[in-house]
Amino acid sequence: MNVAVALLISGLVVLFVGQNPLEAVGYLVSGALGSGEGIGFTLYFATSFMFTGLAVAVASHAGLFTIGAEGQAYLGGLGIALVCLALDRVVPWYVTLVPAAAAGMLFGAAWAFIPAYLQAKRGSHLVITTIMFNFIASSIMIYVLVNVIKEPGSMAPQTRLFDSGGLVPKLGDVLPVNIGTAPLNVSLFIAIAAAVFVWVLIWKTKLGFEIRATGANPAAARNAGISYVKITIVCMLISGALAGLAGINILMGDLGKLQLDFPAGIGLVGVAVALMGRGHPVGIMVASV
After folding, report:
1. Phi and psi angles of residue 153, each rounded to the nearest 5 degrees, phi first
2. Of the candidates 181, 184, 161, which has an alpha carbon nearest to the alpha carbon of residue 171?
3. How confident is the prediction for the chain on average, in pLDDT?
4. How far is the C-alpha of 55 from the C-alpha of 68, rounded, in Å?
5. At what angle do helices 93-117 and 69-87 cross, to 10 degrees?
6. Domain for residue 266, yes or no?
7. Distance (Å, rounded) from C-alpha 79 to C-alpha 77?
8. For 7-50, how does the pLDDT look when each residue is reduced to its tens digit (9 = 90+)?
9. Would you give the end-to-end CA distance of the chain in angstroms?
């Protein structure tokens, strides 16, 4: 329904400027899905949206509405970049990938911890604090990229290019598929694994039951002995860790360096993806595409 309404409104705009809406939709579909390269670009962007959509969904199951996936992905990217810069000339990509993913998750979770603590202990509004932390993350990244890890001799606020040990393979290099110049890479499989993890966590574990119970009725959950503070902090840590993984797709799979504003709105898109996917991993993967 959401997609249908969006297409209807877009079609009216196209009609208003004197063009054929059906022809415009044809270009839209053929560009996104009409070739191997188009599908590759579509899935590349969808991979980032899966990470941030899952991040928002985990929090939402506990009744927490977070806008912080953008900042958490940003800081997660910093952790990933630091590992790549340290190891890319020493070990192959599949060795770098493990500590890089761990660093991305750690930095993302750490950036989610303070808003989570303020919500759980002080009653601060999570929407407000996570939005504020997005701006703080941006300021931190400006300082770090300009004053700490900028490439020597470069005027641009960015790191040096990663060597091969800091770049994950494109999907066309490991599978018999033709994606042209699309940057779709093996982090797609990490996003799918993350979706499976979230499904198991939320619907197949005791913690997941406590998360859903807290989201459905916080008062009843507290009366049943479920700690609101624990659930809030744990959910936000998991949410931040999932958002932090998005940097693998963008930095190690495409840009090959850390630069300003690399998330480019994936955190905010993740909110829409989580809502359209009804918080379910399968729905989130479909909504991401």
Report:
1. 85, -5
2. 184
3. 93
4. 9
5. 150
6. yes
7. 5
8. 889 889 999 998 898 888 888 888 888 888 999 999 999 999 99
9. 15
Maximum CA extent, the chain: 62
In this predicted structure, what is the pLDDT of residue 250? 96
**102 found inside a domain:** yes
Q: Quick one: pLDDT at residue 152?
A: 84
Whether residue 157 is contained in a domain is answered as: yes
172: phi then psi, degrees, rounded to nearest 5:
-65, -15
Q: What is the CA 127 to chain-centroid distance, rounded?
A: 17
Q: 40 is written with which tokens?
A: 């590759």
Q: How far apart are CA 37 and CA 43, in angstroms?
A: 10
Over the stretch 187-245, which tens digit does the pLDDT of each residue have?
999 999 999 999 999 999 999 999 999 999 999 999 999 999 999 999 999 999 999 99
202 within a domain of the structure (yes/no) = yes
How many whole angstroms separate alpha carbon 191 and alpha carbon 46? 9
Helix, strand or coil for residue 153?
coil
| Closest to 239 in 3D by CA, of 289, 187, 202, 277 | 202
Q: Which residue reads 């709105």 in tokens?
A: 265
Residue 11's SS3 state is helix
Q: Which residue range is the domain that position 180 belongs to?
A: 42-288
At residue 214, the 3 state secondary structure works out as helix
C-alpha to C-alpha distance for 289 and 48, rounded to whole angstroms: 10
Domain count, the chain: 1
Contact 186, 168 (CB under 8 A): yes
CB contact burial 235-258 (16+ within 10 A = b; e otherwise): bbbbbbbbbbbbbbbbbbbbbbbb
Helix (H) or strand (E) holding 25: helix 21-33
Structure tokens at 268: 């905010």
The CATH number assigned to the domain holding 176 equals 1.10.3470
